[in-house]
Design a protein that fits this description.
Layout: E1 14-15, E2 18-19, E3 32-43, E4 46-49, E5 63-73, E6 80-85, E7 95-105, E8 112-115, E9 121-124, E10 128-129, E11 142-149, E12 158-167, E13 172-182, E14 190-195, E15 200-210
Antiparallel strand pairs: 1-2, 3-15, 4-14, 5-11, 5-15, 6-10, 6-14, 7-8, 7-9, 7-13, 11-12, 12-13
Length: 213
């Protein structure tokens, strides 16, 4: 119906379930902002660094979300991992975390839910396991998300939590759940994703910033 009088919002007209006129959508679910998309192609890693290549990972947003889609390893049975940088040049922030896993075989031969003490960390600087023995069949991949809270804080630890759905090398559906914190007072200014060995053959990771409510 066109624009309303000055000072009044425009009227939106629906035509066959689509929008015929939209003048302003700033108030519609605008809290999640896409910052950067990285696409793997036989990549050693996919790395997000604040201030590099248009990446923002600072006090601009209180929460950051990484969305991983169809992460495909070059080698069979590799584990998808991540790690954090706390101001230096290395991805070795001290972390304490917990990890558990649920699984269901394609053959419907049972299922399980288990704590994975081999994949948790206790004041460790090594990589955090995210995926478990992902298959590299043509149709195998992993998808999920990782949340990082207030990474620019120099007062509190930096919490993270993530979920990854995986196609296991032995034809299982696996869901890995990880959460923990970077036990450092320095700001976290970089996040790196990589395989335990080999490369990330294909897949994308999108970084979003979540605005304050």
């Amino acid at each position: 119906m066109g624009r309303g009088p000055v000072g009044e919002p425009a009227i939106i007209k629906y035509v066959n379930n689509s929008l015929a006129s939209v003048d302003d959508v700033s108030g519609i679910d605008g809290s999640m902002i896409l910052i950067k998309t990285l696409t793997a192609s036989s990549s050693d890693d996919l790395t997000f660094v604040n201030g590099s290549s248009d990446v923002v990972l600072d006090s601009t947003y209180p929460i950051y979300k990484f969305v991983c889609t169809n992460i495909h390893p070059s080698a069979d049975g590799e584990e998808f991992t991540f790690n954090f940088r706390d101001g230096g040049s290395s991805y070795d922030a001290t972390k304490t975390s917990t990890y558990f896993l649920s699984e269901k075989p394609e053959a419907d031969s049972g299922g399980s839910l288990s704590y994975q003490d081999s994949r948790d960390l206790a004041q460790a600087t090594g990589v955090q396991h995210f995926g478990v023995d992902t298959g590299n069949d043509n149709d195998h991949a992993s998808s999920g998300e990782l949340w990082l809270f207030n990474p620019s804080s120099t007062t509190y630890v930096k919490h993270f939590m993530g979920t990854l759905q995986q196609a296991h090398q032995n034809d299982l559906s696996l869901v890995g759940y990880v959460s923990g914190y970077c036990n450092v007072t320095a700001a976290i200014d970089g996040v790196q994703f990589k395989m335990s060995s080999g490369t990330i053959d294909a897949g994308t990771i999108k970084l979003y910033g979540i605005k304050d409510s």
